[in-house]
Write a structure and sequence with these properties.
By secondary structure, the chain is mainly β. Helix content is 0%, strand content 51%. It is built from no helices and 11 strands. It has strands at 3-7, 10-12, 18-25, 34-40, 44-51, 58-60, 68-73, 78-83, 92-98, 107-108, 112-116. Strands 2, 4, 5, 6, 9, 10 and 11 form a 7-stranded mixed sheet that branches. A 4-stranded antiparallel sheet has the order 1-3-8-7, with no helix packed on it. A hairpin with a 4-residue loop joins strand 7 and strand 8 (78-83). The N and C termini lie far apart (40 Å).
């Protein structure tokens, strides 16, 4: 079965940095686009970033562009999200997810909590 496990969340000060990781198993990791989504208190779900199979093509929400960097290591079946210059509004539960294609469905992990506060 497809399994996505996020880690690296925690409490950080505004302006600080955090690196999230997502380990994948149960499918051919290198064959799928991956993305990050976050659930923001009082706002709901917000798409954060996408990355293609090889890692050379990336997309970002305007709210995180220039501050966050998505990357992947296909040899390790791992997806990353480097978050810099964090703001209180970045506080959310961050989910790693697999993009479906054809008839394959999307899958999300359990999420990792990021709290940005002084």
């Amino acid at each position: 079965q497809v399994q996505l496990v996020e880690s690296g969340g925690g409490l950080v000060q505004p302006g600080g940095s955090l690196r999230l990781s997502c380990t994948a198993s149960g499918y051919d990791f290198r064959g799928y686009w991956m993305y990050w989504v976050r659930k923001v208190p009082g706002k709901g779900l917000e798409w954060v970033s996408d990355i293609n199979t090889a890692g050379g093509t990336t997309y970002y929400a305007d709210s995180v562009k220039g501050r966050f960097t998505i990357s992947r290591d296909n040899a390790k079946n791992t997806l990353y999200l480097q978050m810099n210059s964090l703001k209180p509004e970045d506080t959310a539960l961050y989910y790693c997810a697999r993009r479906g294609w054809g008839t394959d469905q999307d899958y999300w992990g359990q999420g990792t909590q990021v709290t940005v506060s002084s």
